[in-house]
Amino acid sequence: MYLNCHSYYSLRFGTFSEVELLQLAQQNHVTQLVLTDINNTSACLNFVRKAPEFGVRPILGIDFRNGVSPCFIGIAQNNEGYMELNKFLSHHLHHQLKIPQRAPAFKNAMVIYPFEQVLLHDLDNFSEQEFVGVSIKDLRRLPFSILINLKHKLVVQQPVTFRNKQDFNAHRLLRAIDNNVLLSRLSKEEEANEDEKMYPIQNLAAAFSEFSFILENTEKLLSSCSIHFDFSKGRKPQNLKTYLGSVEEDERLLEKLCTEGLPYRYKEMDDSIKTRLEKELQLIKKMGFVSYFLINWDIVSEARRRGFYYVGRGSGANSIVAYLLRITDVDPMELDLYFERFINLYRANPPDFDIDFSWKDRPAMTEYIFERFEHVALLGTYVTFKERGVIRELGKVFGLPPHEIDFLSEGRYNYDELDSISKLVLKYGALLRGKPNYLSIHAGGILISEKPLHWFSATHLPPKGFATTQYDMVIAEDVGLYKFDILGQRGLGKIKEALEIVAYNQPEKYKEIDIHDIQGFKADSTINNLIKTAQCMGCFYVESPAMRMLLKKLEVDNYLGLVAASSIIRPGVAKSGMMREYILRHRHQGRAEEKAHPVMLDIMPDTYGVMVYQEDVIKVAHHFADLDLGEADVLRRGMSGKFRSREEFQKVKDKFISNCRKKGYSDTLIFEVWNQVASFAGYAFAKGHSASYAVESYQSLFLRAYYPLEYSVAVLNNGGGFYRSEFYIHDARMMGATIHPPCINNSVAVNRIYGSHIYLGMMYLRDLESRVMERIIKERYKNGAFTSLEDFLDRVFISMEQLAILIRIDAFRFTEINKHELLWKAHLMLSKNDRLEHPKLFPPRHHGFQIPKLHTTALEAAFDQLELLGFCLRSPFDLLAEPPKNSNGQKDLHRYLNKHIDIYGYLVTVKNTSTHNGKRMHFATLVDQHGEVFDTVLFPPVAAKYFFRGKGIYRFYGKVVEEFGFLSIEVIKMQKESYIPDPRYADMKTSKKLFGSNK
Fold it and tell me: How far apart are CA 532 and CA 309, in angstroms?
């Protein structure tokens, strides 16, 4: 009887989930109902999936509205009708069109016009598919309305939006957030009626007892509707079934491509390669995944045709077929990659391929996929209300001033001392937390399906301009849609651009480079020494402080070691305590035999009996606990947090424990192994995935080893990496580069290198307009270098404000005129009024202005750089109000081992973390006075007392400690050091602290 029910996917309107709606139906003895979210179908598939558990027959529809103003409700009679509704909604969402007051003539969908709207717009002449909805509150007016004569057209339309008063309050807050108004200013028109509740079915029937024909019409309408999606275990995949049009043709093409790929990948063939290939091909065909492989092959082939760099990774990297098709560059034979992680008879979903492209190339590849295949959409995701975001939104709604909102967001308050409004913010914040806020796009998921994607949901059109589903990857998999992951990363952009820079900066050496010579890189001692000494700044996946620390502790100096390190660094391994145990077993021969259970050591000899990769979860479950491969995969997926069926997962966990007990293992051992599995599986990589990362790391490391300055420029031009740009600039300087601020004759928008001289790009000048940048570069390329300020002003249209930025950063230093003098000149030459931009018929005559002799200090230049670039190009230690009391640095740590040291450092990065009992602590990385990096740790008692207050120089007193050869400082106390007052605004005495004056 309920034809108009909302979940919280009626975004910023509804108040509870589709599952809670089903629970509500069960409580009220409702056995069939229609989910009709407002202009949204996000909940539809899961609603159908879960409905049988609550004894409810699900029906799907859409509540079409303009804002909150109702137009009509569409109810699907069947799957075709649902697709019609989705197409109609998607068209309006994509083109940002208003929903019309009258519905189109749907072939397989019913339309219900709300009672109020029919009267308001004088709607009449209803077709066979159209009805008028009457709610409980409308019953008072019905007998006196002309609509009482349309007896065969009236149906029950009692909207369901709330369960109780609390839901209504949450709804009002959501509406205030959506309208960006104070709660007290929220208009009644923006709210739903508080009576939009579900009543027990007998109560609803009683309310309409005088109008039994309405109940009969409603029952008839509901019984004519049904919807079906297959969520069974044996469901068929819904991805594009064939690549060429028939299964037989697809299979022949796959075999042909593998045969062609063998001589490219393997110089020498042996039986193990042939056996592995035959085994994979047989299983891929049996599972119906041939088209999935061919589509991925099509995508990477197009990328190679366009000269785009890519990396194929994910569990699919465990496949020799993927290696032969050049989807991945990881040889599963070399790494003994576990075939059953990649694919097995028990898993319904195809292997996972993540294909990374440069962030610059990814949009073009996405566009290609949309043009190449018929039924394509990006995969959606939901952005939910998070704790801080909710507090900020509700703080505004309740009218709190910004400083009080900041105070609440930081979470350092004493609840008992808060005022009543602040307490309300926290109370309702807890109510909204976790609810969907708006629809977004999955990081890289693309769906390519056999059926039109509107069969499953409506699509919306985010700013990227590609149709995007209104459901996420979890429900997509439930219904048999498996994503293709097309991702963008900056690491590949760095590699590609570094090669382009080498081509112009060292053309004679460029011809010798083969960036795909991975075997050569693996054997290169120079590259391996960079890994061992953790000199990996800017290199993909291996540059972070945590990775640098791990590489030193493990003394990694080879490819396989880097593959293991890539997975060990993941949170789960560290959390389980097995990262430390792995390092101990790696460094101390014999410890593995002493500490590891023989079965575990036998399963994972290469990793000393420690679970490091996702495959290890499957191996342990299969060999240690005697679970079959299907159950083992349930275990792996259940750990990931992406897998919904907690009930199924619990069964497998119980079987894991009971099987181990049957084998005679002690409970101590069983739960020790289980806790390892439980704590890290969701965060671990497949070994093939780690191997793919390691290949890209080696390519980055090769460029850093042999073309360090060119690679540094590429890193900067591709948005840096883990650190701020100034540290990559510092790193380039440490490797021999001379760094120049932006220059109108040598700089472009991005950074540019000439020999060993790096000219910073104009993009770093925060307030310089892009159009001004473009004018300067275009004019210089067209008519040559600028010869003077006068020449520049004759050729480039620019305002005084924009010109001042260039002069202050010393972009005219080639003139050898002091920048204060240039600023005077500029003011005298440029009118305060904007000049018209037009070509000059005659060269202008310039007056010979008499300007006083002026000077600029190096300190003033440094502060100009700080203001305009965000960092200065000289040592920040030169800016200290008081010079350091000592010259201690990273080079002295060995001398102070187990002793206390007084040391100064410029802050690079801080990692804030928590101990197992929730206390805050910090890991900080800094640069010393000599430009070298060192690491500190602030344990909770110190972290509670001292705070990092933004970037700058800190003085530390602490104890130098060593763990597995890695030196760090356990801080006892610290303070932030002051810079000198800005000499540009200080009195002359202060500004006399010169490093020598600039011209």
Answer: 27
Q: How far apart are CA 323 and CA 326, in angstroms?
A: 5
Q: Judging by DSSP bridges, how do beta strands 933-938 and 920-927 pair with one another?
A: antiparallel
First-residue to last-residue Cα distance in the chain: 85
Q: Which of 142, 153, 168, 160 is nearest to 200 (CA)?
A: 160
Q: Are 759 and 742 in contact (CB under 8 A)?
A: yes
Give the distance, in angstroms, between the CA of residue 978 and the centroid of all CA atoms in the same chain: 37
What's the CA gap between 795 and 835, in Å, rounded? 13
Token pair for residue 865? 């750089």
Strand partners, 937: 923, 970
Strands 436-448 and 376-384: antiparallel
Q: One-letter amino acid identity for 844?
A: P
Q: Is 161 helix (H, G, I), strand (E, B) or coil?
A: coil
Distances (CA, A) of 722 to 574, 697, 715, 875: 20, 14, 11, 21
Q: Which 3-state string (H, E, C) describes 535-560?
A: CCCCCCCCCCHHHHHHHHHHCCCCHH
What per-residue confidence (pLDDT) applies to 850?
56
Radius of gyration of the chain (CA): 33
Q: Please report the pLDDT score of residue 639 as a whole number.
A: 62
Using DSSP, state whether 303 is helix, strand or coil: helix
Q: Tell me phi and psi for residue 853, to 5 degrees.
A: -70, 125
Q: What whole-number distance in Å separates Cα of residue 974 and Cα of residue 994?
A: 29
**C-alpha dist (Å) from residue 326 to 297, 310, 359, 986:** 7, 10, 20, 63
Q: Which helix (H) or strand (E) holds 462?
A: none
Report residue 596 as tokens: 């590891």
Q: How many residues does the chain have?
A: 999
What are φ and ψ of residue 209, in 5° steps?
-60, -30
Task: Write out the DSSP string of 490-516.
Answer: HHHHHHHHHHHHHHHHSHHHHTT--TT
Q: What is the reported pLDDT for 918? A: 80
Alpha-carbon distance of 405 to 418, in angstroms, equals 12
As given in the structure block, the two tokens for residue 452 are 């039109």
Tokens for 100? Answer: 């019309």
What pLDDT is recorded for position 651?
80
Angstrom distance (rounded) from CA 947 to CA 974: 9
Residue 681: name the closest of 630, 648, 634 by CA.
Answer: 634
Spatial distance between the Cα atoms of 132 and 147, rounded to a whole number of angstroms = 9
Given a contact cutoff of 8 angstroms between Cβ atoms, the answer to whether 648 and 292 are in contact is no
Instruction: Show the tokens assigned to 692.
Output: 């793919």
Residues 6+ apart with CB under 8 A from 331: 265, 323
Antiparallel, parallel or unpaired: β 953-963 and 997-998 = unpaired
Three-state SS for 316-370 is HHHCHHHHHCCCCCCCCCCCCCCHHHHCCCCCCCCCCCEEEEECCCHHHHHHHHH
List the chain residues with pLDDT less than 50: 644, 832-839, 841-842, 988-999
**Both tokens assigned to 746:** 């040598």
Hey, which residues does 384 pair with through a beta bridge?
436
Name residues whose C-beta falls within 8 Å of residue 126's C-beta, 6 or more positions apart in sequence.
113, 132, 150, 153
Contact criterion met (CB below 8 Å) for 872 and 982:
no
Gap between the Cα atoms of 134 and 158, Å rounded: 7
Question: What's the rounded Cα separation, in Å, for the pair 548 and 553?
Answer: 9
Q: Which helix (H) or strand (E) holds 921?
A: strand 920-927
DSSP 817-876: --HHHHHHHHHHHS-SSPPP----SSPPP----------EEHHHHHHHHHHHHSS-SS-G
Choose among 192, 309, 323, 353: nearest CA to 258: 323
Name 37's bridge partners. 62
Alpha-helical segments (H) within 707-809:
708-717, 725-734, 770-783, 789-795, 800-808
Residues 451, 375 contacting (CB under 8 angstroms): yes
Q: What is the pLDDT of residue 994?
A: 43
